[in-house]
Amino acid sequence: LQGTPVVHASKGFELPSLSRLTEVIGQELSSSSVAVLSGPTHAEEVGRGTPTAAVVACSSSSVAAVFQGLLHGPTFRVYTSGDVIGVELCAALKNVIALATGAGDGLGYGDNARAALITRSLVEIGRLVQAAGGDPRSVAGLAGLGDVVATCTSRHSRNRWAGEQLGRGRAVAEIVASTPKVIEGIPAAQAAVALGARYGVDLPVCEQVNAVLNEGVAVADALASLMGREATTELP
Amino acid sequence: LQGTPVVHASKGFELPSLSRLTEVIGQELSSSSVAVLSGPTHAEEVGRGTPTAAVVACSSSSVAAVFQGLLHGPTFRVYTSGDVIGVELCAALKNVIALATGAGDGLGYGDNARAALITRSLVEIGRLVQAAGGDPRSVAGLAGLGDVVATCTSRHSRNRWAGEQLGRGRAVAEIVASTPKVIEGIPAAQAAVALGARYGVDLPVCEQVNAVLNEGVAVADALASLMGREATTELP
After folding, report:
1. Which residue, A93, A121, A133, A145, is CA-closest to A202?
2. Which residue in the set B116, B138, B150 is minimally distant from A51, CB to CB?
3. More confident of the two residues A106 and A4
4. E strand segments, A58-146
5. What band does B88 get if pLDDT is binned at 50, 70 and 90?
6. In chain A, what percentage of residues exceed pLDDT 70?
7. Longest CA pairwise span in chain A (Å)
8. Torsion, CA A110, CA A115, CA A117, CA A123, rounded to 10
9. Would you name the residues of A annotated as active-site residues?
10. pLDDT tens for residues B47-62?
11. Which candidate in B112, B142, B147, B156 is best for mutational testing of the A interface (most A CBs within 10 A)?
12. Beta strands of chain B (E only): which ranges?
């Protein structure tokens, strides 16, 4: 496979190294032609042929163009990007945002709270992407904002669902035990906090999600802590 | 009132000048201390006290800070911004995006299509904001992404509703006649196209929305035209 272009469509990190998946695949295959496909692409809708758009990111623009050519079609638009770091961080961390917004839903919060959480979460992920050497504009792209919007407003997302259960007062262990599916946002929240520490970036939403999941903090207290932060500026 | 700080919370343009509302108010009051408040702030939720965040933008940072101090509270977070142009353009154009995503909903499209439309619409509004002298980062902020997410996923937005009716095949005139409320996205789509021409910016989503509303193009054809555009790159 050495030299053969490869594209993956997975989300997450290798633990405990926190390596991104193109890094892991590239090392295993001794290849620098590893791309990532991401974006708001619920499989059942792609199968139905309703319009979908995704981004394929690779450090090699020619490899990205190869996959764009293979995957682009009448109902599936594919954009290229050179920002592998930004796309993979967004993909891996969007389920943390889904947990946070789900928790707000479970607490009975409304559209305002959900929109604010999504917006401010993407701002902090943008800071992380920039510190990690990526392009913060990817956060406003299909793998960031696009996938976050689709996930946080979907009744089908198990991460949003798990957050909603937390908001209604169920314990983390009980939620995890009640489903055979992996709730990816749980390890992702830990990874986010570790990445924030590595790069010296403040990630208030990810930190509060992790505090609820792994440190026994009550959901209402975590959200109150976010609301109680000092008033600040949007474009520092 | 001359010199007195003023904040407005309206959306739109003066027609046919296409002036922004802080410009109009500033001229009328001979004041440079005019701020704009915007963001995902459905009134019924603010009244209920569920968490809400908004942005107050003013060319004077001290005036912005005055309104932040007056409005910020336990359940209403206020961020400041110096980017009046970006905040006002986002506020005025978000209802065009609401019409577009509503039309997709009416055509039976799914979460993928809605997320893609939101993402790509914000990209084009970012181009317009930049060309008009604003900060494109505002598009990823509360007045842009935040308000768009709240509007495009809300059952209460009349612009999203009007778009949905269009998607189901109802005529524009019939939709307008069926409600006493103003559907702000209709004049906003015309204003967007005029601004795109003024600044030489390509606004494919706004142009297609306007073509449906004002040029008799069928909704399905307009969306097919968007899907049929050449495959491109996300971060040009």
Report:
1. A121
2. B116
3. A106
4. 76-81
5. very high
6. 99
7. 53
8. -170
9. 94
10. 999 999 999 999 999 9
11. B112
12. 6-8, 13-14, 19-20, 34-38, 52-57, 76-81
